[in-house]
Design a protein that fits this description.
5 strands; alpha+beta; 4 helices
Length: 167
């Protein structure tokens, strides 16, 4: 079978060789992230303001919500998506070198906070069906029960809250 460059490409056995997602592998990566960066339920976790930090923030959120707090997979999935959106905004729009992630829980509620040194406020924009970007805060507004921004002397904290039920 010829590849894009016209040369013959080896045939495999039809199975993908790239690592596939699995709960066990993801739990191991999340556990390593906890060990490396710290637990965002105990203190704010500083993360480098790089696109790959979104994966770390997602893993930290996932392991806390599923394993430590025992929340449902559906709630965890929504929270992981929303933390990814807030982190994406902090990385893309603030020019910061570092942002902070914090997870809090109280009866029937969780709160996820992303702190950055910019005082520029995020803006909820109207979204069209075919838009491929600019949907982050729209998703937060749609899936979270509450969200907002707290201005700080040096920056801001963008947060969302979700009602939860224990498993």
């Amino acid at each position: 079978m010829a590849g894009l460059d016209g040369r013959e490409q080896p045939r495999g056995d039809g199975r993908a060789t790239a690592s596939r997602w699995s709960p066990t592998v993801e739990d191991e990566r999340a556990q390593k992230a906890l060990e490396l960066f710290g637990n965002p339920t105990e203190a704010e976790v500083p993360l480098p303001s790089r696109p790959e930090s979104a994966a770390t923030a997602r893993r930290l959120t996932q392991i806390v919500l599923l394993r430590q707090w025992g929340l449902t997979a559906a709630t965890t999935e929504d929270a992981v998506l929303l933390v990814s959106e807030l982190v994406g905004n902090a990385v893309r729009h603030t020019g910061a070198r570092v942002f902070g992630l914090r997870l809090r829980r109280r009866p029937r509620w969780i709160r996820v906070e992303v702190r950055d040194p910019s005082r520029g406020l995020p803006c909820l924009m109207p979204v069209q069906e075919l838009d491929v970007s600019g949907r982050g805060l729209f998703l937060v507004d749609t899936l979270a029960d509450r969200w907002g921004v707290d201005l700080l002397p040096r920056g801001k904290t963008t947060w969302f809250e979700m009602r939860v039920t224990d498993r």
